[in-house]
Design a protein that fits this description.
Heat Shock Protein 90; Helix Hairpins; five-stranded antiparallel beta sheet; 3 domains; five-stranded mixed beta sheet; Beta-Lactamase; 382 residues; 45% helix; disordered N terminus; 12 strands; alpha+beta
């Protein structure tokens, strides 16, 4: 099946797929200079790059390939890490025919990524036993996401801006016509126009924020962030707004709630949840914010609870959809864009976290954001 194989094998193709091979054993088949050149070339490639022998066993790969799969792959068969039939069949065709090939590969883990895979035969050098196939994975995720975001932005923005633009157009036409010389009406309509302009600005800000988060969805943040500090800071920022709504924000945060994350995004997710609780909670009942470990102490839970009217169960699965509103009029009158919980969901995904919503009519709602403890703390606990 692999006549392009460079060295003899003692085991069958099936054995190669299931049994790991020693890195040093594979490298010993190469002359020292050739092995050094191979390593230098592999490290220099900026995209995930893998060198295979004729049976599909991995001889060498770069740091980007390690980051893609999460582990060292040397000595293992390619199928143990890339299970896409199109890629595996293409490597066999290239090894068999010596003709380069190109396929697409979608990796569904880690936020989902699309790759263009270039598979090229490596010709044998005189007197040398060198790898048979080189595999280069070019990430198309950003390009694909940009195109999708462009289409979504145009569709969503045009839909949501139609109402405020129509209102502003109506006010302007009135000011140009019957209210041209009416100072009282002019003052009233100019105030309404300013409200609609602010609404469009909030909408654009949220759309841009959501697009930025989506573009970085597959890049897991690695900074150390204290979620207790984030909760207290967010509550302080919203204290004035809560006071105006007749609401108190109560924070109960345990110490040492450290996660891997991006502080600004974690503040944004916390603020969005607290703002929603202030907006839809019952006046005078307050908002409770808590930060604690789960029962196994491997995840950290941020809970934001309001004591408002609650949400019907039929709406819960759709709350994080873009522009989905339980009550359109109530959301818009409160300055909402319909994107707040969509932003929360995407930040949660980027941090490998979850958002769970529980609610009972007449009692209120709890929004729980859960994410793993810091990788450093997890290692220290082992």
């Amino acid at each position: 099946m692999f006549p392009f194989m460079i060295w003899n094998r003692q085991s069958s193709d099936d054995d190669a797929r299931t049994q790991p091979r020693n890195d040093e054993a594979g490298r010993s088949r190469l002359q020292p200079d050739t092995a050094a050149i191979l390593d230098a070339i592999t490290r220099a490639v900026p995209d995930p790059f893998i060198m295979l022998d004729g049976s599909g066993v991995i001889l060498s790969h770069n740091r980007q390939a390690t980051e893609l799969t999460g582990q060292d792959m040397v000595g293992q068969h390619l199928s143990q890490h890339i299970r896409a039939p199109a890629v595996l069949e293409a490597t066999e065709r290239v090894a068999d025919s010596g003709v380069p090939d190109q396929v697409h590969y979608e990796r569904r883990t880690g936020g989902g990524r699309l790759f263009e895979v270039f598979i090229t035969p490596v010709p044998a050098l005189t007197g040398e036993r060198v790898p048979a196939v080189a595999v280069l994975l070019r990430d198309l995720s950003t390009q694909q996401q940009l195109e999708k975001m462009r289409a979504d932005f145009v569709a969503n923005a045009s839909h949501e801006m139609r109402t405020p633009l129509a209102s502003m157009t109506g006010f302007i036409e009135t000011l140009q016509g019957s209210a041209r010389n009416d100072a009282k009406a002019r003052e009233k309509f100019l105030g309404r126009m300013l409200e609609q302009a602010h609404r469009m600005r909030r909408l654009i800000d949220d759309l841009l924020s959501l697009s930025r988060i989506e573009m970085n969805l597959h890049r897991t943040p690695s900074d150390q962030v204290d979620m207790s500090e984030v909760a207290r800071y967010s509550a302080e920022l919203l204290a004035t707004r809560a006071s105006e709504a007749g609401c108190e924000i109560r924070v109960a945060a345990q110490p040492g709630m450290i996660v891997d994350g991006e502080r600004d995004e974690l503040i944004q997710i916390t603020q969005n949840l607290i703002e929603n609780a202030i907006k839809y909670g019952a006046s005078g009942r307050g908002v409770d914010v808590s930060v604690s470990h789960d029962t196994k102490r491997v995840r950290i839970e941020l809970d934001v609870t309001d004591y408002g009217a609650g949400i019907d169960a039929q709406h819960l699965p759709r709350l994080t959809e873009r522009f989905y509103r339980v009550s359109v009029q109530e959301s818009r009158s409160g300055g909402g864009t319909g994107l707040g919980l969509a932003i929360v969901k995407h930040i949660a995904l980027r941090h490998r976290g979850n958002l769970d919503i529980t609610s009972r009519k007449g009692e209120g709602s709890t929004f729980r954001f859960t994410l793993p403890v810091s990788s450093e703390l997890a290692k220290a606990a082992e």
